[in-house]
């Protein structure tokens, strides 16, 4: 008897972190753009996937940490966001991906950067 159950994904423990939700959306769009890249741009597409997936991963990990460890992961997320933005722009300039999806991913990455900046530099 197969006892494997499939259950819908439950909310993550960091479900109240808006930057994480937006980063997941941006990564999904970026992956779709990367998958449409021609073979000549495969290395840029792979770098885009690594950078784009690093953003939500580090935001989530940082949310589960405290103090300087938390800030460390959020700084990595911020830098990975900048890297993903650059790779996405390179692929777009080369004609890879759907223009609307690319624009949406870039807008989401920009918003994630702004939110992450605020996490790193809270106002007193």
Describe, in plain words, how this protein is organized in 3D:
It is a single chain. 72% of the residues lie in helices and 0% in strands. The chain has 124 residues and is mainly α. The chain has one domain (18-120): Up-down Bundle (de novo design (two linked rop proteins)), CATH 1.20.1440.60. Helix 1 (18-35) packs antiparallel against helix 2 (42-63) and helix 3 runs antiparallel to helix 4 (99-120). The radius of gyration is 16 Å and the shape is elongated.
Strand content: under 5%
The termini sit apart by: 58 Å
Structural class: mainly alpha
Question: Which consecutive residue ranges, at least 5 long each, have pLDDT under 50?
Answer: 1-14
Order of helices and strands: HHHH
User: What is the class in the CATH system?
Assistant: Mainly Alpha
Q: Number of helical segments?
A: 4
Q: Mean pLDDT, rounded to whole units? A: 90
CATH architecture: Up-down Bundle
Main β-sheet: number of strands, strand sense, barrel status?
Answer: none
The helix content is over 70%
> What is the CATH homologous superfamily assignment?
23S rRNA-intervening sequence
Q: According to CATH, what is the topology?
A: de novo design (two linked rop proteins)
Kindly state the number of beta strands.
Answer: 0
Give the tally of structural domains. 1
Radius of gyration: 16 Å
Question: Quick one: overall form?
Answer: elongated
